[in-house]
Structures are given as C-alpha cells and as structure tokens.
Amino acid sequence: MSFRIDPRLPLTGEVRRILAEEIGKALAHLDAASSRPEQALHKCRRRLKNVRALLRLVRSGDETFCDTENQCYRNVAGLLAGPREATALIETIDRLAASFPKESAGDELGVVRDRLVAHQQELHEGSGLEAAVGAATAACEDGLKRIESLTLPDQPEQAADVLADGARATLRRARKALDKAGSRGEANDFHDLRKAAKTHGMHLSLLGRLWPTPIKARRKAVDQLGERLGELHDVLVMRALLDSGERPLGSPEDKKLLGKLLKRSEKNLKKTCLAEATELFGDSPKRSTRKLARKARHDLAPSPEDASAAAS
C-alpha cells in the first residue's frame, strides 16, 4: 500500500491504514538502529514526520486523538534528535567544502569534521542511544494499539472538509512563516517555514488523487525547497554551536574559516529559499484549498451506510 489516501475508500480506514504502515516502518528502522544507527535513525524520523503530517491533515475530524498522538510522536522524534543532529553537522561541513572548494583547500574544515565525527561516534556507542531507542520503540508500539480509537467522518462532504481544513492550516502556517522570514529573517522563522513546507509536501503525497491542480511540478518544487531549507537549518545550527563555544571545534583559525563560510552559505540559502517559497506560498491558502474541497467532495467514496441506502 502507499502513503496516499484512496478516495474510493472510507477516510477513517485509510487514515488508520497509513498510520499503521508508517509506524510499523518506524519500528523496523528502530530495530535496525543498533547495527546502522546513522541511516536507521534518519529513516525512522522521516516516518514519524509522515505520521505527524497525516495527523495534522485530519486534525479537525478528531482533534483529541490527533493532538495527543502528534505530541507523542513529537516526543519520540525528540529522543532521537541528538544522534541525527550530529550526522547533519558532518553533512554540513561536507556541503561547505563542496560549495567553496578554493576556500576549503586547506585542512581547516577537515579538523572540524574529525571532531564532529568523534562526537557522533560517542553518541552512537554510548548507552544513551540504546535507552532512547528502547523508549521510542515502546512509545510506537503503544501508538499502534491506539490507532483503532481514531474515528473520522466518512461521508464525502464532511471528509472533504476535514482534508481541506488540514491542508489550509498548513498553507497558512507556511504563509505566516514566509512573511516573518522575509521581514525578520530570524532562524526560528526559517525553521517554521521549513516545517510547514515539509508538511505541505507530505500533504501533497497524501492527497495525490484529490489535489485539484497538476501536482507533479508542485511536489518537485516543494521537495526542493524543503531540502534547501534543511540545509539552511543545518547551517544555522552549526553557526549557533560555533558562536556558543560549548563544544571544541578546532583552533581559532579553523573556526574563523568555518564562520566565514557559514555566513556566506546562510546568505545565499536565505535568498534562494525566500524566492522559492514566495512562488509556492504566495497565493491565498483559502483560494488554494477551496478547489481541493470541491474536488474531494466529488471524488471521495460515500460511507458504507450511505452506499447501502442509495442501493435500496
């Protein structure tokens, strides 16, 4: 099965199915974390993001369930954040070296990278990772058992409104974050924009059979923006770590070059991200999702009770 809502089937069953599949895959990645933590934890967190995006999409249909479960999986992802951030910092150094080959021709970035790799290995080999994976596994297993308590409206008109409400809320978050990122440009503004863009991309996947406009090009553009915003986030995290001085990253000369390249990368990425986000989220969220609601009302399957009534 796929990470996509089938409009031919009742909404409650489809959402339960996707939740179970994504949480099951997250558990499989957690099981593999002891042998290959770097890849497994990253993949697990991606599955958890899928789960949370789906919960946001259908929130208005069962707010209590969705809010509770969203917080649960947010906490689970937080348990695994440290090891993933350690890997992301190493990837940031590699991207800086690729983007600025002349400036990084010396060994300054290599020294910083070696220290980051050593820190990553400490996290992977320590007892804290095993405890975090154990706690995350238990939480996901409990979450699987709660899925059957989710109940959403299955009548086409009401189900369509639920999906449109969720999609609209995320587009509004993206528009608000874009406005703040353009006017203030603070790290938190771009972080909020990144989260909203990522969630919108997942909503496009979930609504692939219902979204009213050609979806392929938009999906590609949203995914590209998400990647750039992710790179910007990593640059900003690295800058904050460098400025705080809480972890030794190298000599003053090593850190001076790193700070210089981070500032240049940040400037370039912010400019590109703002331009791309304006293209994607400049339209009115209400206007964008009004068409979605109309199409969904037409395409969604009637509930079993409605279908039986119509047949008789």
What attributes characterize this protein structure?
312 residues, CHAD domain, 12 helices, 0% strand, globular
Structure description:
With 312 residues, this protein is an all-alpha fold. It has one domain: CHAD domain (Alpha solenoid), CATH 1.40.20. It has helices spanning 11-31, 37-57, 63-79, 81-99, 108-125, 127-146, 156-183, 187-206, 216-244, 252-281, 285-299, 304-311. Helix 9 (216-244) packs antiparallel against helix 10. It is globular.
Number of strands: 0
Please identify which CATH superfamily we are dealing with: CHAD domain
Approximately how much helix is present in the residues? over 70%
Terminal CA distance: 32 Å
Structural class: mainly alpha
**What is the radius of gyration computed over CA atoms, rounded to a whole number of angstroms?**
22 Å
CATH class: Mainly Alpha
Helix tally? 12
The CATH architecture comes to: Alpha solenoid
Number of domains: 1
The backbone outline, from C-alpha atoms, is globular
Average pLDDT, all residues: 91
In short:
This protein is mainly alpha-helical.
Task: Please describe the topology of this protein.
Blueprint: H1 11-31, H2 37-57, H3 63-79, H4 81-99, H5 108-125, H6 127-146, H7 156-183, H8 187-206, H9 216-244, H10 252-281, H11 285-299, H12 304-311
Helix pairs in contact: 1-2, 1-6, 2-3, 2-4, 2-8, 3-6, 4-5, 4-9, 5-10, 7-8, 7-10, 7-11, 8-9, 9-10
